[in-house]
Amino acid sequence: MLANMRYHTNVIISLFTALGALAASSRKLMKTGAYALRIAQLQDVAAEIAAGAAAPGRAARCARCPCSAHRPPLTTVSMRAFSVCCHT
């Protein structure tokens, strides 16, 4: 009888441990989804900036910006080294 109670207690503890692991995995999956959404938004903004940098009026205005003096074209810039003009 006592061995049977120990077995059932261990099974219940294992089930709750598995349930906790599932909850943690769900939380991690939601975080990963949020990061993927942020990356997609950054890519959209980078594409908008690249399209805006090609506009002729914007190029003349940003030519006075000291931060854009030695800025490489956006096609060669990685997301970590991304910079934005201070006159936007």
Secondary structure layout:
Layout (H helix, E strand, L loop, with lengths): L1 H52 L2 H7 L26
Q: What is the structure about, briefly put?
A:
This protein has 88 residues and is an all-alpha fold. It has helices spanning 2-53, 56-62.
Structural key phrases:
mainly alpha, 88 residues, 0% strand, 67% helix, 2 helices, single chain
Number of domains: 1
**Which strand-content bin applies to the residues?**
under 5%
Rg (CA only)? 27 Å
Mean pLDDT, nearest integer? Answer: 76
Shape descriptor reads rod-shaped
Order of helices and strands: HH
Name the poorly predicted regions.
none
Which percent range fits the helix content? 55-70%
Strand element count: 0
* Termini gap: 76 Å
Largest sheet: none
Total of DSSP H or I helical runs spanning 4+ residues: 2
User: Helix/strand-derived class?
Assistant: mainly alpha
Protein architecture, described:
The protein is built from 2 helices and no strands. It has helices spanning 2-53, 56-62. The mean pLDDT is 76.
